[in-house]
Design goal:
The complex is a heterotrimer of chains A (331), B (301) and C (145).
Chain A (H helix, E strand, L loop, with lengths): L1 E5 L3 H8 L4 E8 L2 E6 L17 H4 L3 E10 L2 E6 L7 E6 L1 H15 L6 H8 L1 E6 L25 E6 L2 E6 L2 H10 L4 E3 L18 H5 L7 H5 L8 H5 L6 E8 L2 E8 L20 H20 L9 H5 L6 H10 L2
Parallel strand pairs in A: 2-6, 6-7, 7-8
Antiparallel strand pairs in A: 1-9, 1-10, 2-3, 4-5, 4-12, 8-9, 11-12
Chain B lengths: L1 H16 L5 E5 L10 E4 L32 E5 L1 H12 L8 E5 L8 H7 L9 H4 L11 E2 L3 H13 L5 H7 L3 H13 L6 H5 L24 H15 L8 H5 L6 H16 L27
Parallel strand pairs in B: 1-3, 3-4, 4-5
Antiparallel strand pairs in B: 1-2
Helix pairs in contact in B: 7-9, 9-11
Chain C lengths: L13 E6 L3 H10 L8 E6 L7 H9 L4 E6 L10 H18 L7 E5 L5 H18 L10
Parallel strand pairs in C: 1-2, 1-3, 3-4
Helix pairs in contact in C: 1-4
The chains are: A alpha+beta (331), B alpha/beta (301), C alpha/beta (145).
Chain lengths: 331, 301, 145
């Protein structure tokens, strides 16, 4: 038995939840879909995953860290007010849940806790939504993600074509489900079978193989069409590099941290002018090495969830599945 | 186009076998049927990867900059817009003409990839907007020409005779200033500053781009409406008079920002203010903003 | 320059890029001749109006200026012979571009003011200040801080 609601009545659920939470829902605006605060006039985009991954909810592209005032020889630091509002994401997919697991590793483990990230993570509840069909660039199945059962959600919602079913997973999820249970009916349901993936990647043994491939001629070949733009890393749900900068106006300043990308030359530019990654070969190698070797070595998981965003958005179709294939085939 | 594909492969094989060039830049089939990304062929046995179809949007001239300091020659396939890009790079003293073997191919116009994705393989897919407005479908500079030159010239003549298409710019101009500002703010709010537009652009060929020098303080890494518009307007001014209308910036933009609507405004104004001019058509050292006329208009001075 | 003013005591801030050889001397002459003009302008001396980069103008608006004037020698009088001809082309385009992205066209101006045109300097900055006062503070292109 599952608690269900007709799809067209979903806004009622969101409306009710919006009383207690800042509800974020997938919505499309001018061709770009992202998680957007829910309001009655937001048009839900539930057909496919959002283009902009949920990482910016926890790790915004630009985040103010603290303010400072430098006068003569004194320096005052002012903490910024902490947001307290409880958030809820509706419609996060399995691949993006997996990406949060990756980001948790970076921002919360190995003795380092990033409180900017942790604060947002702690006050955000997650309602996962299962996928009915893979999009043409999806390959999460190859990356060990189950598109119909996300890991780490508070509630798993199931897309049942004309209905949506809800199943509480955590205690927090149970609590949320109780708030909306008045709107839900109980019904015996079967979860629709998931279609065939159009894209596949055979990742078996790739992290190990890459250990001996730092100087392989393959990188010089695959990097050639790369433009070294940051599109892939900025739409990637797991890429998490950042740079810390300050904006100073007279005596006042703000420390900000912003997304950065290993595709840019400035990323590794050193003060004396030396750049250890001078050309696109080194930069492209770093991106794929990080995803497929360094991260698995450190955290025992791949830094790719198979969401397919970079495959869709790369202006020159530098496809990670094709690169995995080339790595497999390389001698 | 099938025939041109075969001719392309044949010529590429010949050039590589004879050792005239080290590498041939063309297009190959990508992950999906509507993608034909750049291909770099350096062995005669690999030439069968090369294709020429409705989705060879990528402007290959920009890649030639990667080969500037390498030994040996490079062959490259050029459509009309790619040849204008090549000319701009020559004009900017970025390339040496002798180092490149240019293989011109006539272009019937490339199809809209977004629409292709939407309509499916059997759908009636329109030409990309930039190709509908194109005035120079044939390469303007080449060493070899593939395909039927006479038919291509005839097709090009009708396109060249057409008036320039600025209806979208004109519509924008009619809005009130607040409407315009709201429009552009909402467009550039989306910008993630991945710089795909800059990196794909043949007119953006500075050794070190201003946007890669955050220490100079011109632009920080922070993403906000003001910085993003600073980026957009600065880039528009930097490519003014050198934009060859290949539309690659707009195609490369992951956030669907109508970048060409800015570039076309500058092209329109250059034409109105300083006389008819199409960037990359001639290489004569006369660029609209690197040049002047004593009788230039002074409408607001 | 603080960008936080209340509307009640608001006075426009206008940045004038003045070329060293003509307009700056013109401004000087206006001062020596005791010609009165509004105190809203800040003069930034540049070697030539051709030195003014479009980014300077954008940056000024970002940081809270309400109007920008680029002023230099009359065509033909440039100390560097042709600098101001390039200025003319560049800023003809720039003004149209700024108008196109929604900035009020009055906020960005270019003028030729020679070293002997003290009264013209007075007249231009007075008119510009009045126009910008009528428009009110500029919020467009501004950074938030």
């Amino acid at each position: 038995m599952m608690k269900i609601i007709a799809k067209e009545r979903l806004p009622e659920v969101l409306q009710l939840l919006a009383k207690d939470y800042n509800v974020l829902v997938p919505a499309k605006f001018e061709g770009v879909s992202r998680f957007t605060p829910y309001s009655a006039d937001v048009e839900l985009a539930l057909e496919e995953n959002v283009l902009m991954p949920p990482k910016d909810i926890f790790f915004p592209q630009t985040e103010k860290m603290y303010k400072f005032k430098a006068k003569d020889k004194s320096l005052e630091i002012e903490e910024l007010p902490v947001e307290k509002e409880e958030q809820l994401i509706f419609g996060i997919r399995s691949c993006d849940l997996k990406s949060l697991e990756c980001l948790d590793q970076v921002f919360l483990t190995k003795g380092y806790v990033d409180h900017f990230y942790k604060d947002k993570r702690d006050r955000t509840a997650l309602i996962a939504l299962s996928c009915l069909q893979p999009q043409e660039a999806c390959f999460c199945g190859s990356m060990g993600v189950d598109p119909q059962n996300g890991v780490g959600a508070d509630i798993q919602a199931y897309d049942l074509k004309d209905k949506i079913g809800f199943k509480a997973i955590s205690a927090k999820g149970q609590e949320i489900l109780e708030k909306i249970s008045g709107l839900l009916a109980e019904e015996e349901v079967t979860i629709p079978t998931f279609g065939e993936f159009n894209l596949k990647a055979d990742i078996e043994g790739v992290p190990e193989k890459l250990q001996g491939m730092f100087d392989h001629p393959l990188w010089a070949d695959i990097c050639r069409k790369c433009l070294n733009c940051g599109a892939c890393t900025y739409v990637c749900p797991t890429c998490h590099c950042f740079d810390i900068d300050s904006e100073v106006r007279g005596e006042d300043g703000v420390k900000i941290r912003c997304w950065d990308t290993c595709m840019f030359g400035e990323y590794t530019q050193m003060a004396g002018g030396h750049n250890p990654r001078p050309t696109k070969k080194e930069r492209v190698r770093n991106r794929f090495m990080h995803k497929l070797r360094y991260f698995p070595e450190r955290y025992k998981m791949l830094l790719c969830t198979g969401c397919g965003r970079c495959v869709v958005k790369c202006p020159v179709n530098l496809d990670i599945t094709a690169i995995i294939k080339k790595i497999k085939e390389a001698e | 186009m099938k025939e041109i594909t075969l001719q392309m492969q044949e010529l590429a094989r010949e050039l590589l076998q004879k050792g005239e060039v080290n590498v041939v830049l063309g297009w190959e089939k990508g992950t999906f049927w509507y993608l034909s990304p750049p291909a770099f062929v350096d062995k005669p046995e690999d030439v069968e990867r090369l294709v020429y179809d409705d989705y060879c949007h990528h402007n290959l001239s920009k890649y030639l900059m990667d080969y500037r300091y390498q030994e040996g020659k490079v062959a490259v396939f050029l459509k009309g817009c790619d040849s204008r890009a090549f000319n701009i790079l020559l004009e900017d003293n970025q390339l040496e003409r002798e180092k490149y073997v240019l293989i011109g191919i006539p272009c019937p116009g490339m199809k809209d990839q977004e629409k292709a994705k939407e309509f499916g393989v059997n759908g009636d897919i329109p030409l990309a907007k930039k190709c509908q407005e194109c005035k120079y479908p044939n390469p303007l500079v080449y060493d070899y020409f593939l395909g039927d030159k006479k038919a291509a010239d005839e097709a090009a003549a009708t396109k060249e005779a057409k008036a320039k298409e600025y209806s979208d710019v004109e519509q924008m101009e009619k809005m009130t200033s607040d409407e315009k500002y709201d429009f552009w703010s909402s467009q550039y709010e989306r910008c993630i500053r991945c710089y795909a537009c800059r990196n794909v652009c043949p007119a953006c060929n500075c050794r070190e781009c201003i946007f890669d020098q955050s220490r100079t303080g011109w632009i920080g890494k922070a993403n906000n409406a003001s910085e993003n518009q600073f980026f957009a307007l600065t880039r528009a001014m930097h490519v003014a008079g050198r934009c060859i209308e290949c539309g690659e910036c707009e195609r490369a933009c992951p956030m669907h920002i109508p970048i060409m609507l800015l570039n076309k405004k500058l092209i329109k104004d250059i034409n109105e203010l300083f006389g008819e001019y199409d960037a990359g058509v001639k290489v004569d050292g006369v660029l609209p903003l690197g040049h002047f006329d004593k009788n230039d208009p002074e409408e607001f001075m | 320059m603080s960008v936080k003013e209340t509307s009640s005591n608001w006075e426009p801030k206008i940045l004038v890029f003045a070329c060293n050889w003509c307009t700056y001397a013109g401004a000087d002459l206006a001062g020596l001749s005791r010609l009165q003009y509004p105190p809203n302008i800040r003069i930034l001396r540049v070697p030539c109006s051709g030195r003014v980069n479009p980014q300077f103008v954008l940056r000024a608006f970002q940081r809270g200026v309400d109007g920008v004037l680029v002023a230099g020698c009359h065509p033909g009088d440039c100390h560097y012979v042709t600098g101001n001809y390039f200025t003319r082309r560049r800023f003809l385009l720039m003004q149209r571009l700024l108008e196109y992205v929604g900035l009020d066209p009055e906020r960005f101006q270019a003028r030729w003011i020679s070293g002997s045109e003290g009264p013209k300097f007075q007249e231009v900055v007075t008119k510009l200040t009045e126009d910008i006062k009528a428009l009110g503070p500029n919020r467009k292109l501004r950074d938030a801080q």
